[in-house]
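A quick word before the example. In earlier lectures we treated sequence and structure as two separate objects. From today on, think of them as two lines of the same record. Here is Phospholipid-transporting ATPase written that way.
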Amino acid sequence: MLPLVAVLTIIAIKDGLEDYRKYKLDKQINNLVTKVYSRKEKKYVDRCWKDVTVGDFIRLSCNEVIPADMVLLFSTDPDGICHIETSGLDGESNLKQRQVVRGYTEQDSEVDPEKFSSRIECESPNNDLNRFRGFLEHSNKERVGLSKENLLLRGCTIRNTEAVMGIVVYAGHETKAMLNNSGPRYKRSNLERRANTDVLCCVLLLVIMCLTGALGHGIWLSRYENIPFFNIPEPDGHVISPVLGGFYMFWTMIILLQVLIPISLYVSIEIVKLGQIYFIQSDVDFYNEKMDSTVQCRALNITEDLGQIQYLFSDKTGTLTENKMVFRRCSVAGFDYCHEENAKRLESYQEAASEDEDSPDTPSGSLSNMAKPRAASCRMVRNGPLGSVSSDHLTGSCFALGSGEGASEVPHSRQAAFSSPMETDVVPDTRLLDKFSQITPQLFTPLDETIPDPPLETLYIIDFFIALAICNTVVVSAPNQPRQKIGLSSLHGMPIKSLEEIKSLFQRLSVRRSSSPSLASGKEPSSGVPNAFVSRLSLFSRMKPASPVEEEMSQTSKSPQGSGNSACPIETEKQDGNVGVTNGKVESLPGQPLASSLCYEAESPDEAALVYAARAYQCTLQSRTPEQVMVDFAALGPLTFQLLHILPFDSVRKRMSVVVRHPISNQVVVYTKGADSVIMELLSAASPDGPGLEKQQTMLREKTQQHLDAYTKRGLRTLCVAKRVMSDTEYAEWLRNHFLAETSIDNREELLLESAMRLENKLTLLGATGIEDRLQEGVPESIEALHKAGIKIWMLTGDKQETAVNIAYACKLLEPDDKLFILNTESKNACEMLMDTILKELQKKNPASPEQASSEALHQPPAAPDSGLRAGLIINGRTLEFALQESLQRQFLELAARCHAVVCCRATPLQKSEVVKLVRSHLRVMTLAIGDGANDVSMIQVADVGIGISGQEGMQAVMASDFAISQFKHLSKLLLVHGHWCYTRLSNMILYFFYKNVAYVNLLFWYQFFCGFSGTSMTDYWVLIFFNLLFTSAPPVIYGVLEKDVSAETLMRLPELYRNGQKSEAYLPLTFWITLLDAFYQSLVCFFVPYYTYQGSDIDIFTFGNPLNTAALFIILLHLVIESKSLTWIHMLVIVGSILSYFFFALVFGAMCVTCNPPSNPYWIMQEHMLDPVFYLVCVLTTCVALLPRFIYRVLQGSLFPSPILRAKHFDRLPAEERTEALKKWKEAGKMDQLTSKYSDHSAVKSERIPISDPSAVFAVMSATSCAVEQGNLSVCETALDSDYSENKASGMAGPSKD
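And the structure line, produced from the sequence above:
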């Protein structure tokens, strides 16, 4: 009982320490302080997060974390905008915009909580991060709609805004962030669960042995006709019957043989795991010098699970990628510009990445380590390489002019997202640069008829880079005042005429900003949210050049100082008149350097990369307000575009657009960028300017498509850029129809989508871009190794489909010849039909594995991923919601199990955890989830093994994880090396514990047959206790910590060896029972060889037991030597120490214990035996006979039928050159086997396969190419991928024309 209490106490202390650590972390978060309005004190007071309740008014400052879900009522931003960083929710470190509730935007002062009398009604708490429905009702019963754009979510951080104020609608566990966290679960390793099962088998074996002893004792007593002398009667003279004697003997045998239950095994397992964790954390390969961090083992009880992973679920942003988009190439007007100098720059960054990342290219970099808690920061934006081109620059009234030194005084507590030198410094292409030099203001002066019209290519180049600069929602701010964005002069003083008043009325009736200004985030507009596409209704006052204010500014701009070197027409100057002057101050003279560098805060890395690329060609985004966007375009000077509308990106349209009034032509222009598969279909089919231009557009499209195909083959993310010119009449008509769609109640989303489609057609193609998403170092190699190890990898990301698929190809999760299946549906029935179609296609293409369709197949480990057809599955969040429903779960799992890789796009944190839980519970496989943000916490906690990456998105994932690493590439060694070692060591150690306990206890059991099953022991009880506690306990522990069956280098070079752990080959049920049979055999030999040796002699009971104990010790220890693959001096020292400690104890105990156990005693027994040659002969003979079968089996196994592990172990013994050659032959043999398997599988369906010539080709499903379901509410379901990796377009499509 004492050993059991000791074991349970140690385990309880360990679990208590882990729980206390989690309690301290929870307490730390709950006690964070925020400003809450107190009605009693009539002011804002500090209050803990845990005390925040619904209805509280909260005031937050820049860089504060939001403590609860709150509706935004006030922002210091003049446009009523609040910028937040959502890395704690969606893993993205870029900024997103939130809007003050309509009606509170115009207030100059903060809302007074005492005067707030409105009522807020909203939906019940839910976990949908992309939806919020409710309304705010004023005291006059006027209602204002609330959407997700008005909601600040807990866990986000206020950025670039001085202060905000809001009212709490969800608090505590009702917040959306908390509802997306399923909470931690107690994790037990798979090996531990199996060991518990085998312990129960040992209990059953113990019961059988005790029943045998009880039955034998009863039979033995009943054989005596008279009462035997040793059967002492009770005090009353009553004699115990044989049946009752057998019952008593059962419990006596339980006490005698209880050592069969390996209670000490659990303590040994804990010690071994601590040793394994120590060596994992001591591995220098895990050390990240840049972050000064190494691997953290936060869970002490699941190290061996690292060696049995079958499914890996990974986040994308920050986990696989560095979230750095780098501009690589572009195609403009049919000409490809490869930017070779820029490619060389990127190669230099790759060679010295850490140095470039640690040293900013600004003077402020020296102060990067002087961060203050509440100071925001931005990386300074310098002028591009075209510094020789002079231009005028705007300095808005919202920030003071400052020099570079002044800007450097700002502490850099948080680097702006997507602003590393690798992303910002773009080297222009020399050919494109030469064409830029031909752009002069005189080209656009219609007064001089001697100057010919500018070439069409020049116009395309101008429009292309203008689109890159303004077709986004990038926030421009100054580094000396990073919280305040650069704005233009206010237009509030402009008089409004009759038509303007009508539009202003429209503006007041609608939402001031778009319901989804996050362009690249790709969030689908939620139903019930007004203004799903329109960002800002137009004020026609911008169109009228004759307003008094504009005339006054036009006069100012005509002055020598104000005009600069701009030679635009007079009407253009009137349009731009408010640009040259700010608060009555004239702009800097031409050629004057930029007064203050700019900071770009983009909502996505794609946007940032395009803006920086445009800036490299001196098309610099200078400022942005809800009404205007200012661009400094090379020799043309500052151009102010009046921003009419923003049509954000969504997953249906797969594009975004901005509608502006061009300052030069005074026309309404629509600039659009999006996926090539979408933009190409929206190009104009005919040109009113004649067949010549139409033919030119057709050639332009064909050339651009060729360039796009080349980009996708290089793994670049591609976007097409196009434009459309509208007349004022066309725009006014579209605006009226759009307002009707916006204000409708029924089918509003569909009407808004149709309205956007009416605007985004008849486009003129301008060009295309190729952007490289920077993967983390070593990610493709790691994923390739994990695939070879037999691990199925799923990417679960909240990003859009195109981005996720591009990353999947770049990191080798998907191969160019993989067959992709896309699940994008809008209804459950369509989802079911499409999955059924794909399953039939897979069964037809890969008939070699029909057993996976059976119910038993779902519970089997995944098959080798290299066998048969390689398929990839892409599914979006909406369809995933249907697939996770109970009726479709089985079908979805069967489909996913047949796929080599799965990519889940637009997945919420809760969906991520549900996917992991579904696969883990239904397929009964070992799962691992890895992520770096708070949005990954839920799936990390649900998986069997959760790994957090300590990156730039906080420590939430690390705090919730079982293991923490600094880079994804470390995962390969953590699994393939340490995971394999931990599993193999613990498996063999557990089996060894069962073996040694059964082998030793059976000696006592065999003796019962010769002592009338009386429960007598032939060994002293102290020897029994110390045999397991001292003499044989240390060697298996050392074995479990230090054993290396294969070297780390070989394990990394042969990932296939990892499958040994996936299949649990080291610890199968058959292995367990064979180990017990071997233990029974060895115990028989160990008992009967001494028995027949001393048969007929007059030795006493302890003298007979001593050679049994000694032989058993040698057998058990040498058994471990046979099983060890690597014997070190530590192994030998412990084994020799165990033997010496046994003899030392036996000698001392035999010399001192005279009357320890009368009438028998161990006095001087060992001393006498050590002088007896027979004793040595018995020990040697017994040990050899007992171990001979196992030794012969191991020799034959290593010689005749070696396992892959033994073959790899043989490589470790070879010299370096021979080992390299042997490993090379191994890999070649494996590749030949794979090719043979693939050839045989593919030949079976040769008539149905299409040869793959283009790596970007994506196969479709139904009718050999596609699947369309058009029935009722079933949407068209395609399996052809509409992304940057889409199929080649048909060349017969009509070309576009310029409107």
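Notice the following. DSSP finds 41 helices and 35 strands in the chain. We will return to this example when we discuss secondary structure assignment.
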